[in-house]
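Homework help board

Subject: predicted structure for assignment chain

Our instructor gave us this sequence and asked us to write out the predicted structure in token form, then describe one feature. I got the tokens but I'm not sure how to describe them. Can anyone check?
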Amino acid sequence: MGEVLGDVLGLAAAVAVSPLPIIAIILILATPRGRLNGLLFTGGWILGLSALGAVMLAIASPAGASADKQPATWVGALKLALGVFLVLFGARLWHRRPRDPSQAQLPKWMGAIDRLTPVKVFGLGLALAALNAKNAPLTIAAAASIGSAGLPVGQQIASLAIFVLIATVGLLAPLGVFLLGGERAKTTLGNWKDWAAQHNVAVMAVLFFVLGLKLLGDGISILTS
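My token output:
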């Protein structure tokens, strides 16, 4: 289990520092129902990561390990494909990054966050976790690593839970500041939002490129072993 956690913690950290969900929860916390909406958004995020990871575990576990306890060939092919996707996506993001960070623009949907109902806030958290092209490949890769390791079911669930917890730190930090930070919370969260908005594309480009290379290496190692 320790080896598996070492393999997936980097992926979880990359999900945790994804700037867009952090910006989204900061904007949500600034709405009139900030406390409730922040909790709902985080709950949707956790459910999305858990559901996507559980589906991948259900697929990977029965055929995840070969007879000699090594990951099956299809796991190597999956990691190779995800690695190629992340490297190409990271390169594309880097090419399209604003040359002047102050000119960075947020997605248009963020302008409507203050008008979302609690149900839609929950759905937004779920979608950003499970359906986002930036986070879903990392969660799929982590669950494939867990499912292909030949661990008992209990350890698989525990490993996925740890992945989800680490991947949620990026949302728990602003939520904690909002709930416990008092009057200074608004200024602190505003500074975080501004920095994340300016450097969102560059941060994700570097993360994707580095993690894509790692997954490429893992896939090649499995396919050639």
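Reply (TA_rk): Your tokens look well-formed. For the description, you could write something like this. The mean pLDDT is 85. That's the kind of observation they're looking for.
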